[in-house]
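tool=predict chain=A
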Amino acid sequence: MEGEVDLDCKLAELDDSSTPHPQSASTEHHAEPFFDLLYEAHGVVAVVKPNRLLVHRTDIDYHEPYNLRDLVNKGRHQADWLHPVHRLDKPTSGIVLFAQPGDALNGLKLEFVHRRTTKVYWAIVRGWTEDEGSVDKPLPTAHNPKPKEAITHYKTLARTELQVAVGPYETSRYSLVECRPMTGRFHQIRLHFKHLRHPIVGDTRYGDKQHNRAVAAHTGSGNLMLHAGDLAVALPEERGMLHATAGVPASWAPLLDAWDWEGDVQDVPRAHGAVVR
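tool=predict ok
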């Protein structure tokens, strides 16, 4: 869920059990995914989730051999387990916060509930977007079909036109955008850019299959080009403001470095970091 915390349903309030569902022989030998640690102190942890990894196990994806929550808690006693404060979609990469149950977890959740966090995402989308804009389109939550307020602001950083034919067109156009979701609805950024007719590259659910295949064929990257790269949030007990940055995955390099962009791609984070002020 890009953000995209479905706070109304308290998606981060999870069962304490770490007992996995039975795994089939086809999944039990998968290599364990790797995540990067950005920050850990006073019961709060910030990590970088790779593409194609669940934040936590769900009934729908019970067959998945790994999830970020279990990996973060690997080696910890169950009484000391950390819980996710918010979620990202499985195909989305970027920063995820975890915290110990109690004041730390509840305090951070309130920061998201009251929209006191700053979240910045980067995406590569089909077509040339406007210089900047806002999408104010209500969306359903993960567990409630009734639409609720959903707002995403965006700014175009760069555009490119490739001499690659896709469908009926002799060339293909793409934009690099910075996105700032003001709310945290289910698949919010992905749905809002679909609404704009500029679906995110690599989005197998809402995207353009022809463009997805073309990009994958020319760059070797089939990942969703959506990255939660910057998060600022007040830490519990007035411990300061945590500002975490996650560099984009390596799969972005063929697109950022090899494509001839008109604009500035320097704002896209390439390195990890965290500071408390």
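The longest helix spans residues 103-113. The helical segments are 68-72, 103-113, 188-195, 209-219, 253-258.
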